[in-house]
Description:
Elements: E1 7-11, H1 16-31, E2 35-40, E3 52-56, H2 66-90, E4 94-97, H3 104-112, E5 117-121, H4 128-133, E6 139-142, E7 158-160, E8 183-187, H5 190-206, H6 210-215, E9 216-221, H7 227-234, E10 240-244, H8 250-256, E11 259-262, H9 266-275, E12 279-281, H10 291-301, E13 305-307, H11 315-327, H12 329-339, H13 347-367
Parallel strand pairs: 1-2, 1-4, 2-3, 4-5, 5-6, 6-7, 8-9, 8-11, 9-10, 11-12, 12-13
Helix pairs in contact: 1-13, 2-3, 5-7, 5-11
Amino acid sequence: MSKRGKCVVLAAGGTGGHVFPAQALATELVSQGYSVFVFSDGRGQQFKGSSLSTLHIPAAQFRGSIGRKLKGGFELITGIGAALFHLKRLKPDVVVGFGGYASFPTMIAAGLLRLPTIVHQADAYFGRTNRYLAPYMTCIATSFPHVDNIPQSCQNKVSLSGLPVRPEIKRAAYTSSEERDPFHILITGGSQGAKIFGEIIPQAIHLLEPTLQMRLCITQQCRPEFLESTRALYKKTKAHVELSPFLENMGEQYKRAQLIISRAGASSVVEAALVGRPALFVPYPFAMDDHQFYNAQQVMNVEGGWVMRENEFTLKALSILLSELMTSPWKLSQAAVNIQTIAIPDASSKFARLVNLIASSKRNRNET
């Protein structure tokens, strides 16, 4: 009988912070001859690729009323049962969880079956799901060199893998904007940043000297319902502005930016660092365990950018910072160099090597 091929299961939810790293790792593993199966909740249709098979695993959060919590408990039990069935059938070499409640049933099932497991911690603060799972997992892969809140008893399981990103996100030489040159700002925020960025940034720009306003070339992600109100505020400025609900060709968008303004999700921080672009991060104040602030701290620690809490993100404070940066391009050039020090350019291949290592250990045990 022929030897069974290599197989990996990835457990991830449907948010971008989970989808993009899982897709990047899946692409790398498929190129190395693995069969990759994605276990996801109802948002799993976001995983695309002819080489990927997606299986629906029920999952839910324990929030809200008693009725909702009871429903969540039922879905969790159902999800664990479904994951057990599929894992027994597939017999994967490794099961990789990308955090969040959607990965929880699969990782619990993998632990019960004593399968080799890796949980990936994208943020610089150890999430609640991963903290619960950690004692039962084989390995903890991290995006950043230092992650707060990892249990002391699990420190020996930690391996720095970095955060796999989309292949179009690559390091690019930084071009400073001298006096009178166009100054490109890329503003991303998605659903968590669109409203406040659309209100504060145009008004802060309006406070700048007209000569500075005229230099600005702004590309901003903006939800459809805020497009008109944001456009109306920008019309009071002399800046050149492009607004869009979804930004295409992110590699090129990053490449031409002199400054990024963004929330501080792990992917946003890692992508800015990988390309080598200084950034102003405004952490989402309602993120679980304030994890976005911990991500932004990674940049502050190396002086690779600037951080403003949302209550500090005022018209006056932003206009002062923008004026300072536009008239002192050396500060941005230095920050562009500094932020690269937290990047791991080969994260997908490094993570795949970790998967191979764990898988080889399992195969060696089976053969002895």
